[in-house]
Every structure is written in C-alpha cells, then in structure tokens.
Amino acid sequence: MNLQTDPSKGDGADGTQMSEADTDSIVVRFAGDSGDGVQLLGGQFSQATALDLNSLATFPDFPAEIRAPIGTTYGVSAFQIKFGSRMIKTSGDLPDVLVALNPAALKVNYKDVRTGGLIIVDSGSFTERNLKKAGFNVDPREDGTLGEHRTIEIDISALTLEATKQFDVTQKEALRGKNMWTLGLIYWMYDRTTDATEKFVAGKFGAESPVAQANIAALKAGHAYGETAEVSGDIQQTRVAEVEFAPGEYRLVTGAEALSWGLVAGCELAGIDMTFCSYPITPSSPILHILSRLKNFGVTTFQAEDEIAAACSAIGASYAGNMGITASSGPGIALKTEAIGLAISTELPLIIVDTQRAGPSTGLPTKTEQSDLFLTVWGRNGDAPMVVLSARSPGDCFETAIEAVRLATKYMTPVFVLSDGYIANAAEPWMIPSMSDYEPFPVSYRSEVEGFQPFSRNEETLARPWVKPGTPGLTHRIGGIEKADGSGNISYDPENHQRMTDLRNDKIANIAKDIPAQAVELGNDSGKLAVVGWGSTYGPINRAVANMRDVGLDVAHIHIRNLWPLPENLIDLLGKYDMVLVAEMNNGQMLTFLRSQTRQDIDGHLKVTGQPLTIKEVEDAIRARVQG
Amino acid sequence: MNVQVEPAKLKAKDFASDQEVRWCPGCGDYAILKAVQMALANMGAEPDNTVFVSGIGCASRFPYYMATYGFHTIHGRAPAVASGVKLANPDLDVWIVSGDGDALSIGGNHLLHVLRRNMDVQFLLFNNEIYGLTKGQYSPTSQIGQKSPSTPQGSVDAPIDACTFALGCNARFIARGIDIQAKDLGYVFTRARDHKGASFVEIIQNCIVFNDDAFAHFTEKKVAKETQIHVVHEEKLIYGADSNKGLRIKPGAFELEAVTIGENGITEDDILVHDETNKVLASLLIAMKPPTMPVALGVIYCDSAPSYEQAVKDQIEGAKAKGLGDMDALLRSGNTWTVS
Ligand SMILES: Cc1ncc(C[n+]2csc(CCOP(=O)(O)OP(=O)(O)O)c2C)c(N)n1
Ligand code: SF4
Ligand SMILES: [Mg+2]
C-alpha cells in the first residue's frame, strides 16, 4: 500500500502530498485502553468510510472486563477495519496500520502488524509506569522490538490537552478527547472530512456543551496536525478509490441490528405480533436492546429471570398465538434445552437465536467461535428434530431471520438461528431492502370447530393446526407427554410413540423441499476441491477461494445456510469433488456432522483461537491440497 | 332491537374434560378439581377464555381434566410459560397449577418472579409436603424428620412455608385453603380471580399414598374448629367450637396470642379485627402453627397494585399512539447513502 511509496509521488492542491492507494484495500487497527473510546472511534471511522463509498468490514474486539484496571493488557480494546476499492469480505488479516493509544495496546497488537506496516503510538502515554503495567521491561521503541515496522510517535495526550484547554472541561474530560484527536488524524490520512463526526458529537452532548466543543476541537486538531507540516514524510495522505457498488440505497449494519430488524420484518410478513423473551448475555444482549425500542411495531420484549424462563415465556407467547422468540449465547442456550424439547413435542412455533461465543462453560464471552452446531442440531433429550439456520454475514442476518419466521410458523416448529460474536458486532455496508420485495406469508389460525383435532396434520406440511386460546369451541389440552396421533390425548401406546417420532422427524425432513437447493458460491459444481463453510467464515473462505482460483487452482466454495434439514442436493454435490475441506471455527463439528451424512472422505481446517479465520490460512489450507 | 340472549349458565360438569382422571383413589386432588370446576361455574367463567398452565407432578396433571384451554409444560416452569401467555394475550384468564416441589424447588425462581412482577394470574399451589409423582421423596415443605425413600433416617432440611415465601416475594394476594373445604376454596378462588395481579393460593392437599394424614392434626373434623381460623376482612379474628377463641396482640410483645374470651378478663373488644390489606398482620397470621396457634385460612392478604402485563401493554400502546412502526423507514434510519 501507498504508505511506503515515495512521498514525492503526486501533490495535493493544497501542497500536501496525496496519492491513490496502489493496492485496493487497507487494514487499520485502533487499540487502546477500554476507557479510551476506541470502539466509538472505530464506529465513526466506519461510517465516514462507508459514506466515502469504500467497501468495508469491521471487527470490534473488546475485553471481557467492563472496567479492567487502566493500562493493563487485559483491558485493551481494539477495533479493526478493512476498507478498499474492491468488495471487502473480511475485516482483514494483518493490519497495515496500528494506532496504539498506550503501551498495553502496543504490547497486545504489534506482533500482528504486517512487516513494514506503520505503527502510530501516543508517546505521551509511554510513561515508566504504563510501560511496566503493560509488561515491558524496556521501552519497546528503543530496543528494536518494533524494528520490522515504521513507528511514528506523536504525543496525542499532550496535543489533545493543548487543543481543548480553552474549554471549560476537567483534565480528565479533556483527555477523553484522545480518541477524537486520533480520529481527526486518521480522517486526514484517508482524505475524509470530519463533518459527520462533528454532527454526531454535537448531537450526543448538545452543540453548546463544553464537552462537545472540546471533542470537536480535538477532532479538528488531529485533522489539522495531518494537514500541516508537523507530520513527517512518514504519514502521507491516501485516497482509496470508490467501489462500484450496485445501484441502491445503503447503510452500515451490524449483525445484531440486521437480525433484530429481520425478526420484526418476518413478523410483519407473517402478520403476527412478536413476543421477544430474553436474559442478558454477551454477545446476545444487543438484540434485546434493539427490540425493546421497537414497541411501535407491536413488539413486546420481556427480560425474564433466566434463560429457562425466557424460552418458556416465548413458548407461552407462541401458544397464545404470537411469534415467541428467545435469544441467547452458549451457556444460556444450554439452559433452554429442555424447553425447546417442549416446543418440539407440542409442535409450537418458536425461534431461538444463538449468538455463538467461544468455549465450553463461560469460555471467552467476547470472542467468536461457531461451536454450537452439535448443541443446536443434536443437543436435546429424545429424538427431537428441529430446523437450524445460520447467517453468513451481518446483512445476511436479515434474510435468515425472515426465513426463520416463515419456517417456524408454516411448519409449527422451533427454529434455531445461528449467528456469532463476530457477525453480531461487525458492521458492513448493506444495500437496504424494500419490504415490497418480500412475498408475505400470513399465518392462519384454526377457528373451524367441525372436525377439529389438536394433532391432525396438514397433508403438505405435516404441521398441526395453530389454535389461539380464546377461540370459541376449540378448547383442548397440550403438553410434553407423548400424545396420541390426531386427538393429542395422553398416550403410552408403543406403536403410537413410534408413529409420532416418525411424524416429527418427517415433518422436519420434509422442509428440505421448501428451502433453496445448495448452490456453489464460487467455482465449478465439480472438480478437485470444494471448501465448505457455514456461518461467519463466509468472507475469508470466499476471498481465499477467489484468490486461489485467480492463480489457477481448481477449487470451489460451498456455503451451507440450512444446517438442518440439509439441502436435498448437498451430499450429491459434495460427491462431485475429489476432495472436500471443511473450514470452521470449532474443533470439527461440521466436519463430523457431514461425515455422518456421507461416506465421502472429508477433511477439515479447524481453528479455535476466538478469532475469525484469516484469508491467508484458508489459502494455505487450499494450497496444501491442490497444486496448479 | 336485538334481544340479548343470556348464555345458559354453565355447571361444574361443563368444566370437566372427557379425560379419565388418573389420580390415586382418595387423593386430595379430586376434591380440589371439583372445587375449581364448581367455582368457575359459579363465577360465570368462560371455558374458551380460560387457560390452565401447569408444571410436572401429580397436581400438574390438572389441566387435562379441565374443559378449558390447557398447557401441561415442564417441571417448575409453569409461571414462565403462563407469563408468556398473559403477555401475548392479556384478555385470557390464566390459572397456574403446581405442586410444592414444582413451585418451591425446581420452580422457586419462577414463582418468585411471577409474584413480584404481579403478573395477572392465579397461582394454585397444591401442598402435600411430598413429591407424589416420583414416588414419595421429601419436598421443600416437608417437615424436619420426614421419612421418605431419599431420607430413610428422616429429613434434616428446614422447610419453607409457602405463604411466607409468597409474602417475601411481594405477592399482593395470599390465601390458604384445605382440599376438602370446597365452599371455602370456592370463595378463595373467586377472590383470587377478581384480584388483578398475581394471586397466590396455597391448598393443603392430602397425598393418601405417600404422606397420608400429614395435616390431620388440623384438618381432622374433631380438631378442625380448635385448630383453624377462617379469616374474613373487617371481621374479628375469632375461632373455636364455641366461637370463644380469638387473636390479640400479646401485651408488651410484637406477636399474636391466642386467647379465650371470658377468661382472664378477656372480652371481645380485645380481639383483633382482620385487615387483609395489612402486610404485617398477614405475616403474623401466615406464621401461626398448631398446637399453640390455629392455622390461618381464607384471604389472608389482599392489597392490589398495578399488574405487570397491563404496564407492558400501556407502554406498547403509548409507543404505537406516537406513530406505528414503518419497516422501510426503520431500515433507512440513521446514516444512509445512495449509489446511482
Ligand atoms: C427436569 C425434571 N426433573 C425432575 C423431574 C421428575 N419429577 C417430576 S414431578 C417431580 C416432583 C413432584 O412433586 P410436586 O411438585 O410436589 O408435585 P406432586 O406430585 O406432589 O403433586 C419430580 C422431581 C422432571 N419431570 N423433570
Ligand atoms: S401419589 Fe399422592 S398426590 Fe399423587 S395422585 Fe397419588 S395420592 Fe395424589
Ligand atoms: Mg407435592
């Protein structure tokens, strides 16, 4: 990228140097103490980047502690963004630029920076005390630790204080403007204006408030710092060309937003009110927060006393005729298991959103992983089949959520929607859909008294009738005890249990006919190697496969959204490749799962570091298997 | 002009489903079932608008026997399921049926929250001080020393009193009845249904198989009058075969005392009047135990407060009144840009 190119290459009109990036994407990582406002900085930069028509993907990486002791490595918060003039599909592998607002942020992140990359540090924070807290015995700026990189030291702390001293703010408040100063500088580096952020700050604190004025002053000071001669030739302004997006209206969207909105949209298409019941847990909570603000859409949100109650109250709501939805992450999903079995047995619609996080038990709450596949497809007592869908990207959460509402209501079944911590928090530009693009799928409730049986079935879907309590003449009882086919009365009859088990199985298996056939994302529908992924690994796999195809390797990308039932053609399709490689962020769950469905030899690229897959590792995995 | 035809008044049997009742012969649950069916008929309840939600246990089989809507859920979770039902459709008349293990052991958390939120439901706790369905293990209400398959030498667990628990959870309606006292139960059920908010009713229930006569010391006919007090709002707290016993505040102490009118200079004027809105009095009445004190029965506490689902509904209606949500507008809120 251009930061290494000859600074004399091209002059901006105002005399500062400006060049078009000579590669088509740039990765910047901001890192600082959790109190430094790094996430806000990243969010603002993403907005501005999107408005400048660059494609982008982000990766916020927060510490698990809310307020970790200041200056420690475990209190470091980071935000990575990859942006560029071609379609960006991941938040990037190695940063080209690292901005470290304190020694701990440098310590945690410098090793990731690409060789020759740029590191900007706030030298004002490099006190002996902070160096010690970060675990540096010697100042890394002096002992060659950063030797492979170019380092620029700027006393951001002092410059921020200087820029804000005229305002009536405390020193502490003034120093909080460090993130704004940094943002200003980065805006300058990528030729972005400060307008939108100035508006944002004024809106947040009130235009007249000293805090707003100090923040805006810091922002402008950072921008001016880049503009004026104060910058050494090391930092140079870069303009990343616009991406040719398809025509349409766009916005940035995170997975949590798109998922919440998709659920509301799905309920609108179904013509049904939503009752959303949840118990707070990272990284699922944003869905509860977002939906609780959408009461004017007829959304009821209920913060239950625990995840069991959340699942059960959602089931109660579905029983009463609403779309009952619950959401959680790993440990909370485990708690909901028994209730989900009840919804399967009583054949009620229910949606369970699982925003996956890393590890068993508490694991790594703020890190990402896709290790709940077994839990969702197989993890219940008894033979208890249900639908499992997974979203591949923030924007895709919208479509997946709508599909979940459609399947749950049409087939009277619980549906799992799998997202993960990465998708939930990451933002991407999203072409905003129009509700008129979607075909409504209105639900129908049974009200006909004649011939009513609670467990009679629709011939096509095998779904039982949905009766709202309150409907005249249709009183009936349901429950988790095995019920007689048709009448629904308690039944301990052995043959009946066999029949009901088969019916529950067939109903779900039959849904395979009502979902899209498995497509090949990239490459041919037969050949040497297919890389199979699901969920948030879409971006890195897709880019890696594209890159390897560009150098002539025979490789294809297959991405599975419908985890259960699987698309009808999937197993045949896989059979058309000499080799199948599953790349996933767990210890081999999709791998084992697919092996259970086919006798084909399937291989895996597995990773559980709590970090997304990188393009490079997928490329390496492909290279290890196919040669040009 | 339309002539309004009064629907034919339903009878108790109209609330009975066609399912064969499968409790052990002689189980107290039969009498409670009859009492509920009778009370619903007398109240003019509509089967189509009534939902019974239960957990798991002998008591929790209850919904199958009612000709209303019914949901037999999972162990301990009935209050949570019922909360969802009520939130989705506040117009439904929602009853929860639960056992002492279901309500106070595995489901203790949900009972706590449905009561403190004041969800408008009726919670009937069938207390037999034993786990009936799983064949007789001791329960959280079993007395210390209870011998059971899991406590061959007698239980060493200190029990919880159901009504005390409910009061601690800020329940706004607390009543107690006995399985065989159908008329009193009927009154309590009617009051519970009329009370907007969570209504908690403990029903003393005899498990003839695993804990027979656990309550005989105050339910047997020959001792009942001396060991039970049926409290009535704004009436004197008087009991006894000769209606000459009563409750007063013990002089110089902050506790109730059972006294005899006409003895030691006690007159009727000394006897307390029941005030069902008085939480302190409720806590003292609930705690009374034979032999020194009678067991308090009837509506012990009733002091209504706004119900939860109503407040939730008000917020939603308030938000809708400011403008119904428009999905296309929501998707376009905040920063957007157009590529042409
Ligand atoms: C999750 C779960 N754990 C345990 C059980 C077994 N179980 C069923 S009912 C019950 C206790 C019932 O006692 P209680 O609630 O007092 O009801 P009763 O049978 O006495 O009416 C137990 C332990 C179960 N069904 N589900
Ligand atoms: S075991 Fe006890 S509580 Fe259960 S049905 Fe029999 S008598 Fe009733
Ligand atoms: Mg019991």
3D architecture notes:
The complex is a heterodimer of chains A (628) and B (340). Chain A is of the alpha/beta class and 628 residues long. Chain A is 34% helix and 20% strand. In chain A, the strands form 5 sheets. In chain A, strands 11-10-12-13-15-14-20 form a 7-stranded mixed beta sheet, sandwiched between helices. Chain A has a 6-stranded mixed beta sheet with strand order 3-4-2-5-6-7, sandwiched between helices. A 4-stranded parallel beta sheet of chain A has the order 19-18-21-22. Chain A starts with 17 loop residues before the first strand and ends in a 5-residue tail after the last helix. Residues 1-22 of chain A have low confidence and may be disordered. With 340 residues, chain B is α/β, with parallel strands linked by helices. Chain B has 11 helices and 12 strands. Chain B has an 8-stranded mixed beta sheet, sandwiched between helices. In chain B, strand 5 (173-178), helix 6 and strand 6 (199-204) form a beta-alpha-beta unit. In chain B, helix 1 (28-43) crosses helix 6. The chains are: A alpha/beta (628), B alpha/beta (340). At the A-B interface, helix 1, strand 9, helix 9, helix 11 and helix 12 of A face strand 2, helix 2, helix 4, helix 10 and helix 11 of B. The structure holds thiamine diphosphate (TPP), iron/sulfur cluster and magnesium ion. Magnesium ion binds next to helix 3 of chain B.
